[in-house]
Amino acid sequence: MRIALVAGESSGDVLGAGLIRAIRAQIPDAVFEGVAGPEMLAAGCDQLEPAESLAVMGLVEPLAHIPRLLKLRKQLVQRWSASPPDVFVGIDAPDFNLGLEKRLRNAGVRTVHYVSPSIWAWRAGRIKTVAAAADKVLCILPFEKALYDDAGIDASFVGHPRADGTPASTDRTAARASLGITAANVVAVLPGSRVGEVTRLGGVLTQAAAIIAQGRDDIEFVTPIATPALRAIIERQVEMAGMKGRFRLLQGDSETCMIAADVVLLASGTAALESALLAKPTVAAYRVAALTYAIVKGLNLVKLEYFTLPNLLTEEPLVPEFIQGDARPERIAAAVNELLDDPDRRQIISDRFAKLRSELAQNTDQRAADAVIELANR
Question: Can you give the pTM of this predicted structure?
Answer without folding.
Answer: 0.87
